[in-house]
Description:
By secondary structure, chain A is of the alpha+beta class. Chain A has 26 helices and ten strands. In chain A, β1 and β2 (41-44) form a beta hairpin. In chain A, α11 (233-241) packs antiparallel against α12 and α16 (341-353) crosses α17. Chain B is α+β, with helices and mostly antiparallel strands. Chain B folds into two domains: 1-45; 55-222, Jelly Rolls. Chain B has one helix and twelve strands, in the order αββββββββββββ. In chain B, the strands form two sheets. In chain B, strands 1, 3, 4, 6, 9, 11 and 12 form a seven-stranded antiparallel sheet that branches. In chain B, a hairpin with a 2-residue loop joins β7 (137-142) and β8. Chain A binds chain B through residues 47, 50, 149-150, 152-153, 156-157, 171-172, 177-181, 307-309, 315, 318-319, 322-323, 326, 387, 390-392, 394-395, 397-398, 401-402, 405, 425, 452, 454-456, 472-473, 476, 515-516, 519-520, and chain B through 19, 22-23, 25-26, 29-30, 32-33, 36-37, 39-41, 43-45, 47, 78, 80, 82, 84-85, 87-88, 90, 97, 101, 103-104, 133, 154-157, 188, 190-192.
Amino acid sequence: MITDEATKRRGFVRAFAATLAFWWLYFGLLWSRMLVERSDGLYAGWRTVWADWVVHFAYANVFAYRRIGEWFSTNPIFFGGGFNYPFVADGLSGLLMRAGMERIGAFLLPSVVASLILVALLFIFYESLLRSPKIALLACALFFTNGGVGFLDLAAELAREPALSALLLPPREYTYFPEQHIWWINIVSSELLPQRALLFGMPLGLTALILLRRYAESGFEGVSRARLAALGAIPAALVITHMHSFLALVVLCGIYLLYNRRNYPQWLFFAAAAGVPSLALFALFYAGSGAGGFIEWYPGWLTHPGQRRDISLWLFLWLNWGTFLPLAAVSLIRFRYYRDPLVIGGVVLFVLCFLFRFQPNVWDNTKLLTWSHLLLCVPVARYLAHLWSKPAPISRCVAAALLIFTTASGSLELLRMTRTEAVAHRMWSRDEIALAEAFREISEPTSLVLCSDYHHHWVPGLSGRQVLLGYRGWLASYGLDYGPVERDIRSMLGGGPDAEALMAQYGVDFAVIGNFERRDFNANESYFDQRHELILDQANYKVYSIQRQPGSDRL
Amino acid sequence: MTERENEPANAERAEPYARILDLTEAGLWIVLLVVGVLVALAVIRDGETRHRPSPSAKPAPGGLIEAEDLQVISKSRDFSFWEQDSSGFTGGYWSKNSHMFAHGTQQGDWIELRLPELEPGRYSLQLFMTKAADYGIVAVFVNNTRLEAFDLWSGRGVVPSGKLDAGEVELVGRKNTLRLAVEGKNPNAAPPYYQFGIDGIRLRKPRSVSGGDGESDAEGTSAEPE
Lengths: 555, 226
């Protein structure tokens, strides 16, 4: 018996160590290349980081440069709007910057730590559900290598013209293949790298699930109310860390309660312990933001007629999930996973994502699909292991083929992401970085700046100063109505008849005119030259100080 | 005999059935994989044929010939050129709510499209392209003659270019080609830099008598100078 226990422990340690060694090495390598200073500027190592981290920089700047009482006074990219974004991840980076850490380190260090913790928790979670360290290792691999059948495009190319270089640097992203309706982008590429809130939210959610599972399996034997109350802090923390993970946890706990009704007093106590602080935080940070009002009936997700994609649901599922869903479905029945509340929770989340739209941008349902995928890896890994363990060689071959088919596109993506020498994108030039630093020196943390909403504008992203209007694409995805402000900016930058009155009304402190202001908002440079003091002129940008009329107040 | 003593014999009898079940299970997965691969390849490798243009592209009443209706003759290499729904773009309106989107393009890439059959002669060519932050500079060639190059970069999101005059061209019966070649990028362009989109083209024949706007729309094969 002792030997059995020792063998089990050894098996656990080996599989755990193998999982940590591989994925920690991978994430360590990946993160070290994700934000790099080169001779000509600051580079993001991957497309999604280039696209998403600008706004994370803007949010972190709030915590780095503004006085504490002003942190939540306004939305950093939409003057006058509420700062309703789950702020914990960016707040942490901002505070590290405030403590003196360089921007790159302040962003990479928390991301690296969160990734390492995620890998460890993921393994522990899978092991607790699968009762097999080896299958848990497989489940972890399945989780990180999601993607559709896009790899077949490369396979067909290679069959026509073999080229080793295509395997070393895949020619394109194979889990993001929009022209062929493949949108279930690899989780590392589309979620864990760019979406800092999710990267921090997943370890929290997993911790709650691991503990709740353990308590429920023991019938809450020896679990004190104080411990349950303390556990309630995790969902509450998710409210300000990652709202979609909070939603997923609510759904999963609800399903668990249905399966575990005899322990309903403990579940209800936990619900109350989590619910009270969660509601309080929700009221504090999201009241009036319209959060939750975006949810609408939207059957079919990206195949909904409103998306005009001209593809059937079944074909879409096949192209995006390949054999993953059939394997999960067969395993659900074969291994009676319909009796497991967490696996059923994964199914429910999947179905919900195909029935409702949870954010204005319908693709954002992937944040919940990530949780569904995490849970459905359990039956898929179990079934693949089952096929592999059969005596017939053909079964092993089929198991290997299914594993390759399920993970090939995602694996190609993981490989491509590391080839940053070929896929990195410049975020800002050296001149823009220097300009932002110079501007920060001569402005106040709460200075209001009139500039274009260009996605990579250095004012919100680097200088940390408040802009009237940030990138409209982000604001649209938050469901904000920016139309009136956009019209006013056009009028102010154009030097219209009401320009001065509007600048006084908003309380504009500085105006920036560069390429984007000229091209996007027809900025009238001579107007500002004549009326306002030019205080910076570098890197193709002019920065003017706007003299506010005495007695004028901000909106 | 006790039940326990019967077990090996039962197991022996059950073994062939278990093997048959295993083989059936494996066989079903193989069938799924084969059919699934064929279906997926049919979709993935057939992006352009799903929007195969009609054999003779005809101009709409306004004279616009949809880019979606122009047949792809050849490309510099295997990049994507597909009909993208534009109803999600908020920067303007595209004919029939879609345009043809070139994705995965690099500097130097080109695509050649078959122009509709028209009366031979001189025509002025107008293009209706799409602009976006990650679009490149595209040069226009007709029958291998270079016309204009257009910078399709825009910092205002995805917007229609409006009418772009490419100049006058000499068309010669059936085999006229329109080539769009990526020549470069705007310094402000965002990655991947070299994409482009085209909504449609308009071919107008200069009027033979003075007056009016000096041009008339080409009406497909029936286009006649006034």
